[in-house]
Structures are given as C-alpha cells and as structure tokens.
Design brief:
Shape of chain B: globular
Strand order of the largest sheet of chain A: 1-2
Largest sheet of chain A: 2 strands, antiparallel
Helix content of chain B: over 70%
Oligomer: heterodimer
Order of helices and strands of chain A: HHEEHHHHHHHHHHHHHEEHHHHHH
Largest sheet of chain B: 2 strands, antiparallel
Strand content of chain A: under 5%
Distance between the termini of chain A: 26 Å
Structural class of chain B: mainly alpha
Number of domains of chain A: 1
Number of helices of chain A: 21
Strand order of the largest sheet of chain B: 1-2
Structural class of chain A: mainly alpha
Number of helices of chain B: 21
Radius of gyration of chain A: 21 Å
Helix content of chain A: over 70%
Largest interface: A-B, 30 and 32 residues
Order of helices and strands of chain B: HHEEHHHHHHHHHHHHHHHHHHH
Number of strands of chain B: 2
C-alpha cells in the first residue's frame, strides 16, 4: 500500500483523464471546459511533483523508479505540454479541430511518457512507450479531413510500429541473454562480453533512435511535422523529444553501461549524421514546419553527442541542452502560429518576407529565437551547445566536437536565411493582427529566458548537478 | 570593492539601447529622442573612458581595474581587467562610436531607431571583447558582435547586401568555432579559462601548435589576413557608412588584439614556430592587396583593400616580438582605426549626396567642395604614411622592428608603402582634381556642420598622434615590455631545456 503514495502523479493523471473523458461524452460542446481543465490538471500535477519528496525510491519489485532524473524529465514534459496546449488554443479552434478528445489524448501521451521515463524494467518501459506512441499517432492524424494529416498519421504509425517491433525484439534478446528485464540486473549480468546482449542493445538503440528521430531513422520526421496540424507539430517537437532523450540516457547509462565502448561509436555516428543531415537538408526547405523538422533532427544530434561522451557531465549537458531546446522550440512554434493571413494559416517561409515592417515585435522575437537556435552567443542556445562540447572534449572526442561546431555554421545558414527574409526582403501583405496572450505570452517569456540566460548561465547546471541515475 | 568601472562602460550602451527601445517613432521615420539618447550615452561612455585612461597606472604591467564574479558555477568566472594594450582599444571604441552615431543622422534614412540600438549593442560587445580576461567571456563577446553587424549590413546595406551579410556572418562564424574547441581544450588541460592563470600555468608545448592554429583561424578571418580576407571588401562596400566605419575601425582590431593577448601570451612556442607563416601571409597581404586596391573602381572597395594591406603590417609587427614591432603594430591599429574611419566617412559624404561610390563618376570635386577636399587630403596622406600623421608612426616602427628580425620581409613590406602612396594619390587625383564633368556634382553642398565637425575631430587626432605619439606609447610601454619579456623567457627556457 505504501508504494501507492509514490505514484500519486500518475494515478491523479489517469483519474483525471477518465473523468475528463466522461465529461466529454456527456456534455455537449465541451471542448472549452475540457481544455481548461486539462491545463489545470497539468498545472496541478506540476505542483504535486514539485511538492512531493524526491528521495530515490524503487517500487513494484524495483520496476518503477522515482528519482530526481525522472522527476526532472517529468517537469520538463509538463511545462512544455502546458505551453504548447496554451498557445495552440486559437489554432485548434480556427481549423475547427476543437474536439474534446484533443487535450485528453495529449494527457494520455503524457501518461505514457511518465511511465516511460520512470520505468526501470523493459516491460514497463515498453508499455509506457506504446501508450505514448499510440496517442501520438492519433494526434498526428487528428485533422482527419485533411489528407496530409491523415497521411502523416499513417506514415508515423507504420514506421513507428516497425521500430517498436525492432525494439521489442531487442528487449527479448536482452532478456534471453541476461535473464532479467530489470535494468540493474541486466547491467550486472551483461558485464562479460556477450554477443546476444549487444545485438539486443543495438536493436533497442534503433528503436530509441527512431523515437527521437536521429539519423538514419529520421525519415518520418519531416513528413509528420509538415502534415500534422501545427499545434500537434509543436507538441511533437518538445514533449516526446524530452521523454525520448530521457529514456535514451537511462538505457545507455543503466542497463548498458557495461558495454559503453560498444554503443559509444554508434552514438557518435548517429550524432554526426544527425547534425550534418539536419544542417544540410534544412537549407533547401520552403515550408517552415519542414524546416523545423530538420532543425530538430540537428538538435537531437547535439543532444546525442552529449550522451555519446559517456560521462556524468555528458548526460547532464544533454539534459541542459534539451531544456533550453524546448524553450526555443516553444517560442519558435508560437511565432509560426501567428502566421495567419485571410483566415488561413501559412507555412511557407517566403510569406515571412519583410514581416519586420508590419510586425516588429513578432519578428524581433523570432530573430532572438533563431539566433539562439543557431547557437550564437550570448543567447541561451550557445550555452546549451557549449556545455555539450565541454563534455565531448572532456572525453577527448575531438572529431565529434569539430564536426559538431562546423555544422553549427552550416545550420546557422538556414536560420539566418529566415532572418534575412524577415528583415532584408520587401514586405508583403501583413498577417492578421491579433493579440492573444496565450501565444504572445510564450514568445515573450521564451525571449526573456533566452536573452537573460547569460546573466546566470549555470542555473540549469545547478539543478541538474544533483541528478544521478545510478 | 571598487566601483566596477569596466562593467559600467561595457554595459552602459546596452542600457542606452534599452531606453531607445522604449522610445516611439515620430511621424515618418525620424526619432529625435533616440538620437539624443544614443549621443548622450556614447559621449558619457567616452568621457568615462577618458577618466579611465587618466586614472590608469602606466607603471605596472599587471591587469588593473580587475572585476571578478563567479559566473558559470565552479569553473568560469566573469572576469574583466585591462592593461596598457587593451585600454587603447577601449579608448578607440568609445571614441569612434559617437562619431558613428553622429554620422548616422546624415546617412541612415530608414529605421533609424533600430540602427542606433544595433550600434549601441555592438559597442557593448566590442568593449566587452577588449575588457575580458576570461577565454569564454572573450569568446562570448567576440561572437556576439556578429549579430548586430549582420543586421547592420543586411538591413541598411546596398544592393548586394544579402550576399555580403551572409558572407560576413558565415566566414567569421566558421573561423571562430574552432577557437571554441580550443578554448574548451585549454580548460581541460589547465583547469581554468582565466587568462592570467593560464599565463602562469603555461600550456605544455605539445598542445600549443594545434591550439595556436585554432585561435589563428579565428583571428585571421577577423583581422582579416590574406587569403581569408575576401569577406571584407564585400562587407565594406555594402554596409552603410557608419557600419563600414565600425567594421574598419574596431571590429578588425579584435583580431590583432587577439593575437597580442592570446596567441603570444598563451602559446609562445607555437607563435615562434609559426612566425614564418605569419610573415609570408603578411607580405602577401601587403603587396597583393595593395595591387588589387590599385585596380578598384569603387572607392569603398579600394579603402577596404587598403585596410587588408595595413592589417598586414599589424600582423608583421606583432610577430617580430621586439619592442618596436609590437608597439608599432598597436599604434598602427589605433591610427588605422582613426584613418579608415575618416576615409569611410569621406566616401560617405560623397555617397550621401550623389549615391555613387564609383571613382569615375567624380572628378573636379575640389571646385565645389573645397573644405571637404582638404580634409580628404589629410586622411589620404595619413593612409600612405606621411610623416606627421599617425599612419607614419605605426608603419615606421613596424618596419624598424621587422628590419631587426628579417631583412627580406622588411624590404618587401616597404614596397607596400610605395604602393599605398600610388593607389591613394591616384584615387585622390581622380576624385578631387581634374575637370568637373559630371553635371550632377554641381548642385551638391560642401560638408555640413555635423560632417565637418567629426572629420575635423578625426583630423586633429590623426595629426596629434602623428606629431606626438607619446601618450599612446607611454600607456602601452610597460605592458608591451612585459609581453615581450615573458615571451623571451619562455623561448630561452625551452632552448636551455634542449
């Protein structure tokens, strides 16, 4: 019975999901109320997690951990979801997607992520992953009258199911060769070099790489990002990435810590490939959501570089990176949600032409966010990269560091191309002017955070420094 | 705890920029509030710097006015401090910025408010570069300057502004990322990024060579040295006049300052080892770019190439490692900051009136703009190093220093002085003298009060430091001696070790 109290956030989340579902079924046109309640639920869970004690505990036969690592990831997931949900309200109503299921499915996927990042067992991990993924498939195709959205959903589903299959196969191999599904036991049993475990590890790695969209398992990302409604895309680009990276770290550092020299090279390759592809492929994009997809592939490359360092500092820098990344991405997508003209949302980058004349504030915000995404000091994005490369160079992986920094220059090209379009080109017709604190609030907040980060750049490091997963 | 004077001169422009941000444009694009705030901020900053120079102690080579606060917990401190070398660059920065702001009023017609914000933010970053005593802080300011400069070229630039802005941004960024790798490597080797501590800890020789190259890649692009100078003519030509002035007068000096502060101080062996490379590149820069400058038909491009040639003298002087050479190169940077700023302003005066930078569209300007022609002449002569102007002092000292070290290099570099006379006088002749053929020119007015006053101020400064460079030399003397002594100590220590 005692174990239950550690599960309060998850239990509370599930109960709220089902009660919200009931409300949705029995009350007509209940989008508005469910939307507000979901935001409230997310807020409450954040409070519950922050107020609860966070001594490392393992419950349910050591299959479920509550420690600072999982709590930090959960807080990141909650914060990012809160803001994404907040800013997508107007968009959802405008594209007539205000069905009550929408916030509920998002909550369901959060539940899946919660279970995933807390899991200490292959089975529980898989359950959480699938819960999350199923919710995401539905979200991708939620705009069901739109052929692109449905296409995105199906594409995502088929490819993701394949990767889940690989992952499951990997799990079974690992179980077969180490005799346990528990992460710690896997670690202690895989100490001696064992081909079966390594095969299993590689399959699991492939599955995880797919979920975080690392090259060469990134193919779904641009299509899904472009096809899904923008509100969903912005969700895709933050919360599942946090959960994916968190579980990625956990896998590499907990069950597979003994085979570090086996996975390190795989990760270095994935990281370099993601950074290069993210930078090069984004250059030719004309659709801003597609561009953000490639940008997120590139950023995941940097995050994986931190994991690949294989040290304590490495995974901590990755956590810092992903935290700053969600701040930038939320701001960027909030700006994309402002691109509306004549009742239609616009996704073409060319339409931003000269927008700084008519919308000086929005374009200034996007300017800061883009320079930060490009990693130019003194903005927060620079420090994110700085910490990653600190860790990478500590492990003496100079090639990775140099490739990473050179791709920063390449990727700076497409970020500043958007700035060029916004500031240097001739203005087109202005976008619709409206003030919605739900969209402008996140932009302002994200800009303030990015600009003022340099005053005290170690704030995240101090939070992260208490975290350990061992 | 003393008053944090360095932080205040660094961040004062940022505060000014913030207040400008709050002002509202009047009808049209004018915004007198923004203009007043920016002029006020930059002048206050200049006077604080003068006070700083006054209270600066010439007798010691230690860093003065040091400020330190813990910044990135545990390992990096936000450390400011100046010595006799950096104070001159700070002085130059705060002197040129008000001049730029005054020149904006004539030459920037659109989005004046944003321009002034960008300029003040840029000033903060530039002063930060010269104040910082920590590698990471230095890198932060060094790179951050790209953002406002990119916008200045891109938004207010000429017809090929996009190409130039991108080239400027990507070239410099590519150059500097390697420096970041080197900085982090230094941190893991020595356990600190504090420059003064690194001077004492001393980086093991086997690491120095690659680290030196990484820093070199960054400074060489910024300076710029041949063959990575190609971004400069484009950036200069397309940037608006105040942008060109800042770029030529201060941004280029960051590279030279970097060589002095970091490359020589931290990597003495590598600096010695790579001296032939630097000499070769410098001589090529001096001769080749001077020849290229001869053939230009665009005035701004000509001055841009002459900047590259002058920077060749700077690198040559720094790597002679003797008193005359290093002091000469610092004076050369200082005076080039004044002269190139003035030359770009001169071109700006003509451009604002006729909207042409081509040499062939002028001729006979002396008949209609006599005052202007006189001022232009002073600066043209200063560029070619006429005795009595500050340009002469720098070039002369550099050549003296080089003759001591390498006769051939000095002979070849002296050729550059002759070429400078050729392209500058020829430019002057074609623009100012001759017959007045372009009818458009007849209507234009001579320099107005604001243009005239800033050019006269620059003219006085150029002549003053030409006749009496002592204030500059006195300020930097002890620091330069210290730099050279440390270098020589290291080199002799190594020879005795062998």
């Amino acid at each position: 019975m005692l174990a239950i109290k550690f599960l309060i956030p998850e239990i509370f989340l599930s109960i709220s999901i089902f009660s919200l579902l009931m409300i949705g079924v029995f009350i007509k046109n209940s989008f508005e109320i469910i939307y507000r309640l979901s935001l409230f639920v997310i807020f409450l869970i954040t409070l519950i997690i922050l107020s609860g004690d966070n001594d490392p505990t393992k419950i349910f036969n050591e299959s479920f951990t509550i420690d600072k690592f999982s709590l930090y990831s959960k807080i990141l997931i909650l914060i990012s979801t809160f803001f994404v949900l907040l800013m997508s309200k107007k968009y959802i109503v405008d594209i007539k997607n205000n069905k009550f299921e929408y916030p509920i499915i998002i909550l369901l996927s959060i539940l899946g992520m919660f279970i995933m990042v807390s899991s200490n067992d292959l089975i529980l991990f898989y359950l959480g992953l699938e819960l999350q993924s199923l919710a995401l498939y539905i979200l991708a195709s939620i705009d069901r009258d739109n052929i692109k959205s449905s296409e995105a959903g199906v594409k995502y589903f088929v490819l993701s199911a394949l990767s889940s299959g690989l992952l499951l196969y990997g799990c079974s191999l690992v179980y077969g060769f180490t005799g346990s599904t528990n992460f710690e036991e896997i670690a202690s049993n895989s100490g001696d070099f064992n081909v079966g475990t390594i095969f299993g590890m590689v399959f699991i790695l492939v599955g995880l790489a797919f979920k975080v969209s690392a090259v060469p398992f990134h193919m779904w990302t641009p299509d899904v990002y472009q096809g899904s409604p923008t509100s969903v895309t912005s969700f895709f680009s933050v919360a599942p990435k946090v959960a994916g990276i968190a579980i990625f770290i956990k896998f590499m550092y907990l069950p597979f810590q003994g085979v570090l020299n086996q996975w390190q090279y795989i990760l270095v390759f994935m990281s370099i490939a993601s950074m290069i592809l993210g930078a090069v492929a984004a250059i030719g994009q004309t659709n801003i959501k597609r561009l953000m997809a490639y940008s997120s592939i590139g950023h995941i490359g940097y995050a994986i570089a931190g994991i690949a360092a294989g040290t304590e500092n490495g995974f901590k820098s990755t956590l810092v990176y992903i935290s700053i990344y969600i701040v930038m991405n939320i701001g960027a997508f909030a700006c994309i949600l402002l691109m509306k003209r004549g009742g239609k949302y616009i996704e073409e980058i060319e339409e931003l032409s000269g927008v700084s004349k008519n919308h000086p504030m929005m374009s200034f915000g996007l300017l800061i966010i883009l320079f930060s995404l490009a990693g130019i000091p003194p903005l927060a994005g620079f420090f994110a990269k700085f910490y990653i490369f600190m860790a990478v160079i500590e492990s003496e992986m100079y090639t990775l560091a140099i490739v990473g920094l050179v791709t920063t220059v390449l990727s700076a090209f497409y970020y500043i191309r958007i700035i060029k379009i916004m500031y240097f080109d001739e203005p087109k017709k202005p976008f619709e002017k409206f003030v919605d604190y739900r969209i402008h609030g996140p932009i302002v907040l994200s800009c303030i955070l990015l600009v003022s980060f340099f005053i005290y750049p170690s704030i995240l490091n101090e939070i992260v420094s208490n975290i350990s997963i061992f | 705890m003393n008053f944090p004077i360095l932080s205040s001169i660094t961040f004062l422009p940022l505060i000014g920029a913030f207040f400008i941000f709050l002002t509202r444009n009047e009808k049209g694009e004018s915004n007198s509030g923004a203009v007043y705030i920016s002029i006020f901020t930059s002048f206050v900053n200049f006077f604080i710097t003068l006070f700083l120079w006054y209270s600066f102690d010439n007798e010691t080579s230690n860093f003065q006015f040091v400020e330190e606060i813990s910044w990135i917990s545990g390992f990096i401190k936000f450390k400011f401090g100046i010595d006799g070398i950096s104070i001159l660059f700070i002085l130059l920065t705060t002197f040129i910025t008000p001049i730029c702001i005054i020149s904006c009023i004539n030459s920037v017609k659109t989005r004046l408010k944003e321009f002034l914000i960008a300029l003040l933010v840029l000033e903060t970053f530039m002063i930060g570069v010269f104040c910082s005593l920590d590698l990471v802080v230095f890198y932060l300011f060094f790179e951050a300057g790209l953002i406002p400069m990119f916008l200045i070229i891109g938004i207010w630039g000429g017809s090929r502004k996009v190409y130039s802005a991108f080239k400027f941004f990507l070239f410099t960024l590519l150059g500097s990322v390697l420096m970041l790798v080197a900085i982090i490597t230094i941190y893991w080797i020595t356990g600190t990024t504090d420059v003064t501590q690194i001077y004492e800890i001393k980086i093991p020789p086997k690491f120095q060579y690659l680290l030196w190259l990484a820093f070199f890649s960054s400074f060489a692009v910024k300076l710029p040295m041949w063959p990575v100078h190609t971004w400069l003519p484009d950036a200069h030509v397309e940037a608006p006049t105040p942008g060109s002035v800042i770029l030529a007068a201060i941004l280029l000096k960051m590279g030279g300052y970097g060589f002095l502060r970091f490359s020589i101080g931290m990597f003495p062996f590598a600096s010695e080892y790579f001296t032939p490379l630097i000499f070769a590149l410098s001589v090529i820069a001096v001769i080749y770019t001077s020849l290229v400058a001869l053939m230009q038909d665009d005035m701004k491009k000509l001055i841009a190439y002459s900047s590259v040639a002058h920077m060749g003298f700077v690198t040559m002087g720094i790597f002679t490692f003797n008193k005359q050479g290093v002091e000469g190169s610092i004076i050369q940077m200082f005076s080039h900051g004044l002269i190139s700023a003035a030359l770009f302003l001169c071109v700006g005066v003509l451009y604002d009136r006729t909207h042409s930078r081509l040499i062939k569209s002028y001729g006979g300007v002396v008949h209609i703009l006599p005052k202007y022609s006189f001022l232009f002449m002073v600066f043209a002569l200063a560029t070619l190093g006429l005795p009595g102007t500050s340009g002469f002092v720098g070039e002369f000292l550099v050549l003296v220093g080089t003759f001591k070290v390498n006769f051939l290099v000095a002979i070849l570099a002296s050729l550059g002085v002759i070429l400078a006379a050729a392209y500058m006088l020829w430019l002057y002749k074609r623009v100012i003298f001759g017959k007045l053929e372009n009818i458009q020119l007849k209507k234009i007015q001579d320099v107005n009060l604001s243009e005239g006053s800033i050019l006269v101020v620059l003219c006085i400064a150029v002549l003053f430091f030409g006749f009496y460079p002592d204030p500059l030399l006195e300020t930097m003397k002890v620091s330069v001696d210290n730099l050279i002594n440390n270098y020589n100590l290291e080199i002799t220590r190594r020879i005795t070790l062998k």
